């Protein structure tokens, strides 16, 4: 049966300036504008009624979003003074491009577009455009602000985009205490009716309509604008923008013309379609980097997580060449692309008179601590074929950004983790864009930590490899109960809908739940080792971390899979999924396919069709939960066999377990 998505947007009176001469005559009052998706499954309608804008959404004739208001309030008042619609314009569009880093290499996204001008017929005679794009797996719209008569700038106090959801869907979203946050926490899973009023939720958020429809709400192309949140007010969700610091509630200040990010609604009757969608990158501008030869996604060490473990025989461990050499040699032996130079003993690798991770007044990211020769480390890494990365606090880096990036390039550093940003107001958004642009000029890739969700900028700036903004395995160093498999299974259906998710993968010391204790050095893990291997496929990130220390890996079952699994993909397909319960997906890289399957605290049995494989015979290298993982969660059942696309495989997942398979074409 063909499923139909219908979206109706009622634009209710928004007064604008007299229409520019390129706009066709205005619509008759209350006349509805309609737009269909390329395959006819999505319909959008727009109508002006009583100086208010509304939109509605249906999936297969089922209401998803009921009539919901779109409101904008500027410093000179709400945009609603005797509104009149200009004549809409329509066009067909197609985004066809190659992703340098992504879950799919070649993207082909068709859409239908509507541009609707709106004018105020009363003072202050402003004008606005709403642009809508409808794809086969969702839709997006944004506000566009043309140059106004007698004003060439704008001050936005509020953007109230409403989402009045039909019925009582199950909500999966991250509640936050404020707009200044690391975006890390335990996700709320509850029916809409149980969500408290005036709560503040991060995006993406997932809404499950009785397992028959799935809606993911987020934003794309966040540039020179404030980050968006959702708040439940009077029974419906309303967008909230992060305020500029010290600006009295102002959200956005900009010169005209200007435009908002896209307000994205991923929508399908199949949950996996939301994870497969490329709408978010398709709503971003094309790649702006001319030379791409230096951009090399891969895996990296991150010794901070394991506690900077080195052999007892190592002479003078610390932030020095010898410690870096130990990890670089490990990377070279095992094909791991990068080693990260981080802190040691809670002191940064660079001179800093701050306390713990807060930079002091004399922090200098261009001066290594005594005994640390960064040039020598970079030269040794180059000799061994291993790239060098560094960790920096954004507030220490930003005042020195130009001199630091130039020096890092001179040394031979290839990338960095920029941490503790903890904001997404317009100022911070612009700072991060500046960092990406300037880093690219010096051939540096970026991994943002303590940062907001991705919005598809890895298409425009493919040197953005990954973002954190997720509670992850670092909490096993200090939280009494650690990160449990239930936390893992929520992330793909929430935060990962927006894009790459840094998660501190690779802990190889799993214990039963009743044996878990916090350890800042050599942290323990929950869930099985097969679960951990599968996470390298499940979690999208173009710079996966190999968090543990060399002797935790070498000679251990499953390490071969960790060494072989790529971090960027040609294709992604979801085979089965139930939010908060289980997920099985496959990803393709070159001639190989990789399968990852994880579950929560319940065991599962699946039969998986291998019809996704290309023609020919493959060797399936299987890493599954052993029969005794209840007591020994690091135990694996390793097997191999020949398969084709005509075959099926039985998959068993223990409680908190996983299943990882590498498919290598042999003929």
TrEMBL record:
What cofactors does this protein use?
A: Ca(2+)
List each copy of the Glycosyl-hydrolase 97 C-terminal oligomerisation domain by range.
Answer: 568-663
What are the Glycosyl-hydrolase 97 catalytic domain coordinates in residue numbering? 304-469
* Pfam family membership, one: GH97_N
Which UniProt keywords are listed? Answer: Calcium
PANTHER family, per this entry? GLUCAN 1,4-ALPHA-GLUCOSIDASE SUSB-RELATED, RETAINING ALPHA-GALACTOSIDASE
Q: What is this protein called?
A: Alpha-glucosidase
Organism (species): Dyadobacter jejuensis
């Amino acid at each position: 049966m063909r499923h139909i998505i219908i979206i109706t947007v009622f634009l209710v009176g928004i007064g604008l300036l007299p229409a520019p001469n390129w706009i066709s005559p205005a619509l008759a009052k209350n006349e509805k504008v309609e737009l269909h998706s390329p395959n006819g499954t999505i319909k959008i309608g727009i109508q002006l009624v009583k100086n208010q804008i509304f939109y509605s959404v249906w999936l297969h004739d089922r209401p998803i979003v009921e009539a919901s208001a779109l409101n904008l309030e500027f410093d000179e008042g709400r945009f609603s003074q005797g509104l009149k619609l200009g004549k809409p314009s329509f066009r067909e569009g197609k985004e066809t491009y190659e992703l340098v880093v992504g879950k799919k290499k070649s993207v082909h996204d068709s859409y239908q577009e509507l541009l609707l001008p709106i004018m105020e017929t009363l003072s202050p005679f402003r004008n606005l455009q709403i642009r809508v794009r409808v794809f086969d797996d969702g839709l997006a719209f944004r506000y566009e602000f043309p140059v106004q008569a007698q004003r060439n700038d704008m001050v936005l106090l509020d953007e109230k985009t409403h989402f009045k959801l039909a019925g009582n869907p199950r909500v999966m979203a991250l509640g936050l205490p404020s707009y200044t946050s690391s975006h890390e926490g335990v996700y709320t899973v509850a029916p809409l009716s149980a969500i408290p009023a005036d709560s503040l939720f991060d995006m993406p958020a997932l809404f499950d309509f009785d397992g028959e429809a799935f809606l993911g709400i987020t934003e794309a192309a966040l540039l020179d604008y404030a980050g968006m949140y959702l708040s439940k007010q009077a029974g419906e969700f309303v967008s909230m923008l992060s305020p500029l610091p010290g600006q009295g509630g102002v959200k956005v200040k900009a010169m005209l013309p200007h435009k908002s990010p896209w307000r994205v609604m991923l929508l399908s009757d199949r949950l996996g379609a939301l994870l497969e969608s490329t709408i978010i990158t398709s709503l971003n501008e094309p790649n702006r980097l001319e030379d791409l030869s230096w951009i090399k996604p891969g895996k990296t060490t991150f010794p901070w997580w394991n506690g900077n473990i080195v052999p007892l025989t190592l002479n003078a461990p610390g932030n020095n060449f010898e410690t870096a050499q130990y990890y670089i040699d490990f990377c070279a032996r095992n094909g791991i692309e990068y080693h990260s130079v981080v802190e040691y003993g809670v002191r940064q690798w660079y001179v800093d008179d701050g306390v713990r991770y807060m930079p002091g007044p004399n922090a200098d990211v261009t001066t290594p601590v005594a005994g640390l020769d960064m040039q020598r480390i970079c030269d040794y890494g180059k000799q061994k074929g291993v790239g060098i990365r560094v960790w920096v606090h954004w507030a220490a880096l930003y005042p020195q950004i130009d001199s630091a990036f130039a020096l890092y390039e001179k040394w031979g550093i290839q990338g960095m983790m920029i941490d503790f940003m903890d904001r997404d107001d317009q100022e911070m958004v612009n700072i991060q864009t500046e960092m990406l642009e300037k880093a690219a000029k010096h051939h540096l890739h970026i991994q943002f930590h303590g940062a907001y969700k991705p919005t598809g900028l890895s298409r425009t700036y493919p040197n953005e490899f990954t973002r954190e903004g997720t509670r992850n395995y670092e909490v096993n160093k200090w939280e009494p109960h650690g990160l449990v498999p239930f936390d893992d299974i929520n992330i793909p259906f929430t935060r990962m809908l927006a894009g790459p998710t840094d998660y501190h993968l690779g802990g190889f010391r799993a214990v039963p739940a009743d044996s878990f204790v916090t350890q800042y050095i050599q942290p323990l893990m929950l869930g099985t080792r097969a679960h951990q291997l599968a996470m390298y496929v499940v979690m999208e990130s173009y710079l996966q971390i190999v968090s543990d220390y060399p002797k935790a890996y070498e000679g251990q079952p499953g390490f071969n899979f960790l060494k072989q699994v790529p971090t960027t993909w040609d294709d992604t397909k979801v085979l089965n999924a139930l939010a908060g319960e289980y997920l099985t997906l496959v990803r393709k890289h070159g001639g190989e396919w990789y399968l990852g399957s994880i579950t929560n605290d319940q065991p599962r049995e699946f039969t998986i069709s291998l019809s996704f494989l290309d023609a020919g015979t493959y060797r399936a290298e299987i890493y599954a939960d052993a029969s005794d993982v209840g007591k020994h969660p690091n135990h694996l059942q390793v097997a191999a066999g020949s398969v084709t696309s005509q075959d099926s495989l039985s998959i068993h997942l223990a409680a908190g377990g996983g299943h990882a398979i590498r498919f290598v074409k042999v003929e």
